[in-house]
């Protein structure tokens, strides 16, 4: 017997047993058996080794759910940004007022010292 004959007999036996797995139709719910790897190609609604697990799509109670959630979180972020900017501007103005007041007090002390002549 030649090597090619042995290989062909071996391949025939291998494919015969692989195909035998699909003969029993193990895939459920309109799944298709793939003989070379013994797996089931399942429809979108099912999964699992034998297409026996039902995958139901998530039912949305509100068709605008994604829009409102995204919009409200975006509005919240904009509100936070607005409040942050306003707070920063307000604090900056208060700091500048305080700084100008200190300069004015320093000038007044300097003028007072110079007017009394106590240097």
Description:
The longest helix has 52 residues, at 65-116. The mean pLDDT is 78. The strands form two sheets. This protein has a two-stranded antiparallel sheet with strand order 1-2. Strands 3-4 form a two-stranded antiparallel ribbon. It has two helices and four strands, in the order H-E-E-E-E-H. The chain has 119 residues and is mostly helical. The chain has helices at 3-23, 65-116, and strands at 32-34, 39-41, 46-47, 53-54.
Describe the protein's topology:
Blueprint: H1 3-23, E1 32-34, E2 39-41, E3 46-47, E4 53-54, H2 65-116
Antiparallel strand pairs: 1-2, 3-4
* Mean pLDDT value: 78
The H-and-E topology, N to C, reads as: HEEEEH
Can you tell me the residue ranges where pLDDT is under 50 for at least 5 consecutive residues?
Answer: none
The rough form would be described as rod-shaped
| Total helical segments | 2
The biggest sheet amounts to: 2 strands, antiparallel
Radius of gyration: 41 Å
Q: Which structural class is indicated by helix and strand composition?
A: mainly alpha
> Could you give the order of strands across the largest sheet?
1-2
DSSP E strands, number: 4
Beta-strand percentage range: 5-15%
Q: Give the helix proportion (percent range).
A: 55-70%
First and last CA, distance: 124 Å
